[in-house]
Amino acid sequence: MNDDESCENEVSSVKYVYTILSAVCVLLICMFPQTVHAADEIMVDTDTLNVRAGQGTQFDSIGTLYKGETYEIVQVADEWIEIVYNNQQGWVSKDYVIIQDTDNEQLRDDDLMEFKTSIDNMYIRTEPSSSSSISQLFDKGTKCSVLEKTTEQWYQVSCDDHEGYMFSKHILESPSIENENMRDKTIVIDAGHGGRDVGSIGVNGTYEKDLTLKTALALKDALQALGARVHMTRDDDSYALLESRPMYANTVRADAFISIHYNSFPDVPSVTGIGTYYYEGQDQFLASSLQHAVSLYSESRDRGIEHGDYQVLRTNIRPSALIELGFISNAYSEELLLTAAYQDKLVHGIVNGLSSFFAGK
Which of 35, 39, 123, 154 has the highest Cβ tally under 10 A? Predict the structure, then answer.
């Protein structure tokens, strides 16, 4: 056998072995497929976590996440999770996050947000997609309830005992069922900080005291238009002693006391969302009603409710809650919070939350 024949036979042998190995690999992949499933979101469980361009540390970092932040999951694949990060997709290690799978989670009956359809022939669809079929049409003024926020754009609703999916814009622009629940209620609005106490300072220089007063005055107008008796702990740039604020609510026998605030966390400027605090267990329903409605109407991240040892709540014997309506340490949030359109959403949410609270008492 000459050298050329020997070389040709060796190449053939290599090709044969490669073919066999390829077939074995395909068989193993079919027998043990990569685990991929959908989930809702992850919560970062370490101080800092790199977002990678691909599945592995060999890929470039495209950003950093911080402990406690949550992000939408695209897919889970073996030891890496694909998420939505800054309007793009990236990968994080599964070892440093907590998967929060809330698929099919239903809200309790006392958390439902009610509204009325704003036009004739308002429809619901069989699936949360504009390409799905319309299952039912409703006349203007039909009473509906939100059952679940399915995606950023779609809600599962119930209208006249028919369940389906409605586009978010149709819900947020529809009137809520709030008038009858608000009439003759006594409500104290506390615009946080004021005067020498500026509160937090936004990344672009916004004073928290100015923003809380802006929201409080708009909320006062909305509540009075619905027949509520509204009292303010301050209605200008003045400072009210902390102990005087709950005392005022106790004196006028308020049906509800709401302290308006805006949050700040400069160390992690990407943090966003709305959170509500209560002190006594009896106030938890008020906090839950406000939190659910404001998060829903503003389409902001829902940070949930927590016990808060704040003086305006601790010495308050009336139903009371303190709500943080957003982070002014986040440049985008600060800009959004200053717009009239977004303030309207916040006010509408608070009013609807109060209505749900009064309806469920």
Answer: 154
